[in-house]
Structure formats: C-alpha cells, structure tokens
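user: can you give me the structure for this one chain? tokens are fine.
assistant: on it. calling the predictor now.
[tool input]
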Amino acid sequence: MLDLATRVYNHNFRIDPIVRSLLDTDFYKLLMAQMILRRHRDVSVTFGIHNRTRSVRIAEEVDIGALREQLDHARSLRLSRGEATWLRGNAFYGTRRILSPEFITWFEGFQLPDYDLAVRDGQYELSFHGSWLETTMWEVPALAILNELRSRATLRGMGRFDLQVLYARAMTRVWEKIERLRRLPDLSIADFGTRRRHGFLWQDWCVQAMQEGLGPAFTGTSNCLIALRREVEAVGTNAHELPMVYAALAEDDAALAQAPYAVLGDWQQDYEGNLLIVLPDTYGTTGFLEKAPDWISAWTGMRIDSKDPIEGGEEVIAFWKSRGCDPREKLAIFSDGLDIDTIEGIHAHFHGRMRIGYGWGTLLTNDFRGLVPGGRLDPISIVCKVSEANGRPTVKLSDNPSKAQGPEDLVARYRRVFGLGEQAAMPVVV
C-alpha cells in the first residue's frame, strides 16, 4: 500500500500533477456530455467557480502561479489508447456501448478549453466560456485542483512524522466509519467524492478501504480513472446542470415549466431505458412531483439531494404511492452532505420501505476536520456551476434556498412559474 505521508513529504517534482488523466472525472460528466454532443452542440455556456465558504479566502491560501500551472497541465491531457479501449469495451450498469463510438471518437480528440482567472476579495474568479460540450468538462478537474492545492498549501510546512500521524488519524476515522457501515442491513453505497476531495491519492485510498471493508455493499465510485484502476463500477447519472440550461433556453413560461421534464424525456430516449434516476430538486421537489407526467413514476428511482433527507424520502414515497407504485420496488439515492451519523439515521428510518442507496462524497474523501489547528484542512463548500447559456443567465432554486443562484428578477420569475412557496434555509456544510 502507498505510504501517503512519505509521498506527500517528497514533493521533488517540477510539477506534481493533480489531474493525471481526462478520466479523472465523474462518470455523470461523460453521460451528460454524450447527450450534449447529440442534441446541443451549438449551445454556448459559461461556468464559474463559487466558494460558498466565504470565511476561507482561498486566493490567499493557494498560489495563483501554482493554480495556473495545474490548470495548464490539465489542458495538456489527452485520452490515451488504453483509456479509450476501456470506455469502448467496459460494461457500465451491465450494458455495453452506453458510450457510443461517436462520443468516444470525440473524446479521443478532446482537450480542455482555455480559462479566465482573476482574484477579487480573497477569492478566485475562475471561469470557462464557450461550447457547452467542452466547458462542462472543466467542472470536476477545476474543483479537484483547487481543493488539492489548498490541502498541499497546508501540508507543505509539516514534517514527515507530523504527516504520518495526520494520515494515520484520518485513516482511522475513515475505517471507524466503515466499521459502523458494516452493521447496516442491505447497505448499498458508492464514492461520490471526486470534486471536493483532499487529493487524488487519498480518494484512491478511500475507495480501496471501502472495497475491502464493505465488499459487495460498496457499489462503485463516480471517478472513472479510479474505477478503471481498481476494477470497480463507475457510477453516476446526471446533475442540475441539464435542467438549468434547458430552462435558460426556454422561450416562454410554458416552455420553462416543462424544461425539467423535457430533460428527462431526452435522457430516457438517449439511454434507451437505462440510468433512470430522477433528480427532482433543481426548481423544488414538491412542485416537480405534483406536476410530473405519469411516465416519471415508471423510472427506477430518485436522487434526494438538497432537501432534508427524511422529509425528502417521505415525499418520494408518497409520490410513488399516489401513482400506484410500490415504493419497496423503487430506489432512493441520498447524496447531500452525508456522513456516518446521517447515513445511519436515514437507514433506520427507511430500511424495508424502499430500496436505498448512498452517494458518499466530501466527508468520505476529505474529512480532516479538526486534525490541523485552525481548521486549515477542514473541507469547504466550493462549486463550479453553469451561470449562462446562449447569453441568458441560468437559475437554480433548489429545495435549500442557501444553494439558490441567479439574478433576483429571474429567481422571482422562476419561483412564480414553478410555484415555489416559502422555504427554510439550511446550512450548506459541504
């Protein structure tokens, strides 16, 4: 097993790449990019980094020269022959050729586009403008680079023994969580931790620990490169980005109201009945379910993301029952800010009432809370979101207004169109 402390201590390279491959991204990015390639090649968008944890002035912690170097290195990457062969030959979700020859041919010739970088009030303004198909591929590597550079800046002054103790404590913390997970009946859990990980090597270690500690209860990782190397399933479906762009492109209120369902209709057609997990909260779960067409109830399940997990789970159970479905045959995936206590609480409440899956993210791959004085390794809530599509601002309302984005006048319009009432803000930890 890799000696992480020694590896971190021995930074004797001209550049120690953070992103090592174009496959060092989440599987849902490839699935969404394929849909964009087929349907929306001409759409132009802007993505931008936003640090929700404003108390952390990340531009004062991460050197701008080091950031540019890592971003430029990521732009130099190309898909290797072996990686393309894995994409072509591997069965994802038990199905071969989910990724079409057309998409893989495009990916083989792809390189990350240019970026704009500035500093304002202690924060980086990092943005990506251009083709939706190309700029969407920046989200995961950009976040991984920023988070790992922050980790490296904190670790740089630590000695070899300090690092050994730090990683021993962090490993013990992860393993103790895994031991508690073992007690949960019918557990199904995956790693969703790429975007805000402590570092690539640490995420890889966490995946190996989950493999050994949980066996078949560990269903895979969202990270394609780690899935390839560790021979586990690459998992994921889609994200809020799709309905946000579809909504921005809508020409009137009627088209706007239908945008979240239009996304799912296109997705279902493109993936021929596979990967049918609904993400209902972009403009409010309650309104989405109330107005959902009947064919939505035939999908495999739902991902409960920004709502209180117990409230959200009860809401989707009520929806399935109202549409004549047996919730015990449906799948609910919980994925928002999960940690061991939350997972145990969800499992105790819902086990036996529906199938349950967990996408465990930041607090699997970046839980160094309290291990360094001043919280300098504590994870932060940093995101990379689409902010504009064909010159029109995008909007996200969310079940948690703390995660909302968009100009005030458009937010008001979207709230009216989607019938969003009063919401209680919840803290966004990660």
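assistant: here you go. Residues 243 and 263 are 6 Å apart (CA to CA). Residues 160-181 form the longest helix (22 residues).
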